[in-house]
Amino acid sequence: MSRAISFQVLAEAGAARAGRLQTPHGEVQTPAFMPVGTYGTVKGLTPEDLQELGAQIILANAFHLWVRPGPELIGQLGGLHGFMAWSGPILTDSGGFQVFSLREFSKLTELGARVRTPLDGQHRLLTPEISIAAQETLGVDIAMALDECIEWPADRDRVQRSTQRTTRWLKRGLAHRRRPDRTALLGIVQGGFFEDLRREHAAELVDLDLDAYAIGGLSVGEPTEQMLGMVEVTAPLLPRDRLRYLMGVGYPIDIIEAVTRGVDVFDCVIPTRSGRFGQVFTQRGRLNIKHARMRTDPLPLDPGCTCYTCRAFSRAYLRHLFLSNEILAPRLLSLHNLTFYQRFMARIRQAIPSGSAALEALRREALGWMSRHEDE
After folding, report:
1. Among 234, 249, 354, 376, which is disulfide-ready with 358 (CB 3.0 to 4.6 Å)?
2. Is 207 designated active site?
3. Spatial contact of 290 and 275, defined as CB atoms under 8 Å apart
4. What CATH number is associated with residue 184?
5. pTM score, two decimals?
6. Which residue is catalytic, options 49, 211, 264, 267?
């Protein structure tokens, strides 16, 4: 079978890997961070913005696009790449997490998830087959298999039954594929916070010889130490020559901690959501643009940053925009935060070939960013 994607490890430092992901819409150097474009757009930013700040691949959400405007319409208008004018690779989430987040409006059965969507109050049935068909119609490079994402904490019996259902749904999705040469399929390793269940599920999925693998069911409210513990258990169980994706993570320190445990790709809403609320990442620590001391500050957000926001505007001006509810404010802060993330990922990629000491120095630096608030 011809695969839509391929992955090659180029350098290692302990468990950390620098690699190359080849997709139908271009190459991705890993470790990589995917900006989140849930509805086919990264909020407030254009595809040109994303290219200029260094984004290589973006994430969109098949569930939301399935609800509106529908994959058939998007397919008729050039697929998701043409629809949103993004020429690079796209990965779509299957809808499993959306079913989880809408669990008050959802009912899960072996067939799939019946969801009453807040958009229009209609009940819709999402099955593994529908999820795969929708993502292939969107024409994305990488599709996620529909899984059952559950709450934390959950007892062992609940986790085991859910994990087994995820496997059954994955096999149904695999059987329904029509374009394996154009859209890769990622299976999601579940198992909650039970090490033996994680090991068993990883083994089951590896036996299916999937295009790539995701580590799911984490970053759902558990302590960071538990999350990283499960990553450390799971990542080494996955094939060396396949991409490893940790879903929904996270802050810069979480990302580099996961990289040192063998993860290649990440996504999270944190940089853009933080920007919309006035929170900024800088190499001096985090800052809140709404803080009173920013009122007369002539400095850029981060003097060491070369993004458009930092080249052109002062903190005082950005605070003024934000307090005036000008839509330019969240756009400019989101642009800076995503630039910060992409520069951080580039530094990780550069550090790995230099060895574990270089990576550890960068990890300590990231820990400093997260522990300091510049405006305190």
Report:
1. 354
2. no
3. no
4. 3.20.20.105
5. 0.97
6. 267
